[in-house]
């Protein structure tokens, strides 16, 4: 009997990074386990030695941990059913496959690559839908097998799929599924290097690790009949299967690197918040049955269920991710954003192009700004940014005096009569003691009145002088944050630099 509390696993092959599709699989497993007080297990499926990538496991674990998907058992923390790296379980697979061989459910195959190649070509010439092994070695006598084994002939072990059968199973997402056994190849279970294939290792481990629900991407659906046969051959209870819909590019092709980033670490490097990424990925193939789109992980845990996972492919919509990032960032308190902004200032590098376009920002790398000052900037800019980095790129003037002035705004607002007006304003400002918003506003109004001009004739050139650009938060907020001395300094610099 499958126990009440589920045990689920994320079982990636370490390819070098955590794919967003992998993150979705890991997340759904995690949510399902947490929702039902079960266990979430990380198992590394590293039996394909040709695809070994140095550092891949560490990388994968780092990405999972960054996302907050803590597992209960795994290669680095152990657990009752370890080891959790398949390369450390080779003996277990060998023992199990011996059992199948003894019962005629698997068999040794000594066919050479050349023979298999020929077979494949023959079948292609006959236009058969798929290449299949012809069970040649199933007909070998015991003596022939012994002789080959003793003679050290290379071999693989194959699954003995019985012809003309229906293989049926139920999938929580896709419903009742039937495969013809005639379309299922005699899958290799043990390769010539002695390593198991994915199919054997996966089934043996899911059984030994007491996995109750196999939740994985749809691309594994076509492997499931082989797995189902293995469960039946071993006489084991099958887990519940749930195959998650494909992730698609906006043009509905399969999500690929060519159309954008697919690695979690790329999104992290671009400044996406883990909360936003988790929220976004959770909605790729699942919804709670309402229109709600903003979620924290606790609420996802509470609401998640496999029967609300969709069949149809889920489109990876980067605009939605951007929107969620902005929403999650805005929901943070100014104090929460403060260390993130400091880190961003510390991390300015030449590679980051948006910052590179603003040379003044290169100058502030590693500079220390006091917390009080940064908190004022956060509060003024919060509604205007979607990424922490944008505090720098959208309002560089809070961190360094403008190096240049927006050309279109100069043309529009800087007139021959502007300099004397600004000089007058500067003198009004100079006379102020510790000015706040109101004092600046009054001084500006007084200047306009004295010169008998509209306030707009002062406001726009003043904004340009202090910030270099024509957009941003309220002008008086900017003045208060910068402080009187800096404001006057910037007016003087603009008077020197801007020529029309
Ligand atoms: N190792 C497979 C992968 O890389 C696991 C598939 C499964 O969950 O069964 O995705």
What is the level 1 CATH name of the largest domain? Alpha Beta
The backbone outline, from C-alpha atoms, is elongated
CATH topology of the largest domain: Rossmann fold
Helical coverage, percent range: 40-55%
Widest sheet: strand ordering: 3-4-7
Going by helix content, strand content and strand pairing, the class is mainly alpha
Head-to-tail CA distance between termini: 84 Å
Give the total of domains.
4
For the sheet with most strands, the description reads: 3 strands, antiparallel
CATH architecture level-2 label of the largest domain = 3-Layer(aba) Sandwich
Please report which band the strand proportion falls in: under 5%, 5-15%, 15-25%, 25-35%, 35-45% or over 45%.
Answer: 5-15%
* Helical stretch tally: 22
Mean pLDDT metric: 94
Query: Regions with pLDDT < 50 over 5+ consecutive residues?
Result: none
Radius of gyration from the CA trace? 32 Å
CATH superfamily of the largest domain: HUPs
Small molecules bound in the structure, each named once: glutamic acid
Compute the number of strand runs. 11
Q: What report would you give on this structure?
A:
The radius of gyration is 32 Å and the shape is elongated. α9 packs across α11 and α18 crosses α19. The model has no long low-confidence stretch (mean pLDDT 94). The protein has 22 helices and 11 strands. The strands form 5 sheets. A 3-stranded antiparallel β-sheet has the order 3-4-7. It has a two-stranded parallel ribbon with strand order 1-2. It folds into 4 domains: 140 residues, Rossmann fold, CATH 3.40.50.620; 156 residues, Rossmann fold (3-Layer(aba) Sandwich); 65 residues, no CATH class; 91 residues, Arc Repressor Mutant, subunit A (Orthogonal Bundle), CATH 1.10.10.350. It has 500 residues and is mainly alpha-helical. α1 links the parallel β1 and β2. The protein binds glutamic acid (GLU). The site of glutamic acid has 8 residues, from α6.
């Amino acid at each position: 009997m499958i126990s009440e509390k589920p045990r689920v696993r994320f079982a990636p092959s370490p390819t070098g990074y955590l794919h967003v599709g992998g993150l979705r699989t890991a997340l759904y497993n995690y949510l399902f386990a947490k929702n039902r007080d079960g266990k979430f297990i990380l198992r590394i499926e590293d039996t394909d030695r040709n695809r070994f990538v140095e550092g891949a496991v560490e990388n994968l674990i780092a990405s999972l941990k960054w996302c907050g998907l803590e597992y209960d058992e795994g290669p680095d923390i152990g657990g009752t059913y370890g080891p959790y790296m398949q390369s450390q379980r080779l003996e277990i697979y060998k023992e199990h496959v011996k059992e199948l061989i003894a019962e005629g459910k698997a068999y040794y195959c000594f066919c050479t690559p050349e023979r298999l190649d020929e077979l494949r070509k023959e079948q292609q010439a006959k236009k058969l839908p798929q290449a299949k092994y012809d069970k040649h070695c199933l007909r070998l006598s015991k003596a022939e097998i012994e002789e080959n084994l003793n003679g050290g002939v290379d071999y693989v072990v194959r699954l003995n799929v019985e012809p003309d059968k229906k293989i049926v199973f139920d999938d929580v997402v896709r419903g009742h599924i039937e495969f013809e056994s005639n379309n299922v190849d005699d899958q290799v279970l043990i390769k010539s290097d002695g390593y198991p294939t994915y199919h054997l290792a996966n089934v043996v481990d899911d059984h030994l690790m007491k996995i109750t629900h196999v939740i994985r991407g749809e691309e594994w659906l076509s492997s499931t009949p082989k797995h189902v046969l293995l469960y039946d051959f071993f006489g084991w209870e099958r887990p519940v299967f749930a195959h998650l819909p494909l992730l698609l590019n906006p043009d509905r092709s399969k999500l690929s690197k060519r159309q954008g980033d697919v690695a979690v670490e790329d999104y992290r490097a671009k400044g996406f918040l883990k909360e936003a990424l988790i929220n976004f990925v959770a909605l790729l193939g699942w919804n709670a049955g309402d229109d709600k789109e903003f979620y924290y992980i606790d609420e996802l845990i509470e609401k998640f269920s496999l029967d609300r996972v969709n069949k149809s492919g889920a489109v990876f919509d980067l605009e939605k991710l951007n929107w969620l990032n902005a929403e999650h960032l805005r929901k943070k308190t100014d104090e929460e954003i403060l260390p993130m902004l400091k880190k961003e200032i510390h991390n300015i590098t030449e590679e980051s192009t948006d910052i590179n376009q603003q040379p003044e920002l290169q100058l502030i790398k590693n500079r220390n700004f006091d917390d009080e000052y940064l908190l004022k900037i956060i509060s003024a800019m919060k509604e205007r940014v979607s990424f922490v980095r944008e505090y720098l790129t959208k309002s560089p003037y809070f961190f360094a005096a403008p190096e240049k002035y927006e050309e279109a705004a100069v043309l529009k607002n800087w007139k021959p009569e502007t300099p004397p007006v600004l000089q007058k304003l500067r003198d009004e400002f100079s006379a102020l003691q510790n000015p706040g918003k109101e004092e600046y506003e009054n001084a500006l109004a007084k200047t306009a009145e004295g010169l008998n001009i509209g306030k707009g004739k002062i406001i726009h050139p003043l904004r340009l002088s202090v910030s270099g650009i024509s957009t941003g938060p309220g002008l008086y907020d900017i003045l208060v944050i910068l402080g009187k001395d800096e404001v006057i300094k910037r007016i003087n610099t603009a008077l020197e630099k801007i020529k029309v």
